[in-house]
Amino acid sequence: MSVRQLVLFDAVARHGTLKRAAAEFGLSQPAATQSIAALQERSGLDLIERRGRQNVLTAVGEALRQRLPATLARLEQGLAELGAENPRRACWHITRAQLTLMADLRRLGTLEHVVAAMGAERRAALRAVRTLEAQVGSRLLESAGGQTELTGAGIILADRLGNMPDEIDMIVRDLSSLADGSRPALVVGVMPDPGTAGLDAVVLGHLEAGFDAQLVIVEGHLDDLVGRLILGKVDLIVGHVPDQDRKELTWRVLERSSFVVVARKQHPMAGRRGVPLHDLVGQTWLLGSAGSDRRKASDILFAGRAQPRCRLVTAAAPLMTRVLAGNDDLAMMTERELAARSQSLCAIAHDAPRVVVTIGWACRHDWVPTPAQADFISRLESAFGGA
Q1: What pLDDT is recorded for position 222?
Q2: Confidence class of residue 361 from pLDDT cuts 50, 70 and 90?
Q3: DSSP structure string for 73-129
Q4: Is residue 179 part of a domain?
Q5: Fewest CB atoms within 10 A around its CB: which of 34, 73, 134, 244?
Q6: Does any domain span residue 308?
Q7: How distant is the alpha carbon of residue 166 from its chain centre?
């Protein structure tokens, strides 16, 4: 789908006839008809059907009409911020290739890096940006130190538009599911460590709400899930909030939870107060996987001391729970994890400072959720209660 085709489709949906939509952009009716036909052919979707003098949206076309305004509104807002006199008209002239190029410039930093990494022709890339400059009325590139970089206006526009190609692809994916009768998917990436206890209630509540979208839970660690999110392979991710954020993503904090030392309720240290750190070091431990927040918490706890003897390294909280329940080992869990296992485990009160982890969810910048996605997010925020 090209931006021009989507803008024209939106006009058809608003006016109800191809003739009026064509007139809005100074097109002949045959040219507008050809553009809509190309949109349907390239997407593989039947969006509009002719009934007498009216152009009526199909069920898939109606679904696109509902999704499209928010996407185009962000594009128009970015153009308006740069001073475009008629943002809707300016949208008409922007190509998908220009959107992709601006995203690559923002991601890679310079035109030279884009040419090298993406195999683009410098002259063609430069011409595409200059054409875009003429359309928006602002200078988007400047030369500095032998490199060609985005100007401040270019950065603003790239941040506004950078995710649009991926978002268009996601819209096509969802509409294709609707068209072929399969259920559209809501894909949620979840970090398994340090665990997101309470997510089960969110999932059950969402499923009981009866949305048609199939819920898919994908487990993975931060870097893997962030990569999938940026590429549009997952809709949102849930887990610990990283120290350094990606500009393409927006994180929203759900809660801040402390790590506590845990053991089975029959452990000799259970019930003691202010257990000295050297006593903890003398115990056998179950540790989180390398690089996980659970492992980082234990590393901070024992910083400057000899590491305790470790009997098991795992990212699986359920496995850790079963081992703890049958032995006098120690481990670290968040307060929420422990609350879900309070029948068999307890916290060991020690005199060292606690380590805090921030749990949140992330989406692509300026992402607009579907009703099913919005329901899942609402239940997620209610379950965790905010920070």
Answers
A1: 81
A2: very high
A3: HHHHHHHHHTT-S-HHHHHHH--HHHHHHHHHHHHHSBHHHHHHHH---HHHHHHHH
A4: no
A5: 244
A6: yes
A7: 11
Per-residue confidence (pLDDT) for residue 180, from 0 to 100: 66
- For residue 285, give the CATH number of its domain: 3.40.190.290
Contact 105, 50 (CB under 8 A): no
Q: What is the mean pLDDT of residues 288-301?
A: 86
Asked whether residue 268 falls in the same domain as residue 326, the answer is: yes
Q: Which tokens sit at 32?
A: 């507008």
The residues that bridge with 284 in the sheet, in sequence order, are 309
**Contact assessment for residue 356 and residue 256, using Cβ atoms and an 8 Å cutoff:** yes
How many CB atoms sit inside 10 A of residue 83's CB?
A: 11
pLDDT > 80? residue 295: yes
Q: Which amino acid, one-letter code, is at 55?
A: N
Instruction: Give the integer Cα–Cα distance in Å for 270 and 103.
Output: 55
Residue 185 in 3-state DSSP? strand
Q: What are phi and psi of 11, to 5 degrees?
A: -65, -40
Boundaries of domain holding 37: 3-164
- Which CATH number characterizes residue 9's domain? 1.10.10.10
Average the pLDDT over each of 20-24, 123-127, 309-313, 381-385 and give the range with the smallest value: 381-385
Coil/strand/helix, residue 34: helix
Whether residues 158 and 207 share a domain: the answer is: no
Q: Is residue 183 part of a domain?
A: no
Burial-class residue 146 by CB neighbours within 10 Å (0-12, 13-18, 19+). Answer: exposed
Detail the DSSP E strand segments found in 210-272.
214-219, 236-240, 249-264
> What is the number of domains present in the chain?
2
Domain co-membership, 130 together with 201: no
Instruction: Report the pLDDT value the prediction gives residue 92, as an integer from 0 to 100.
Output: 78
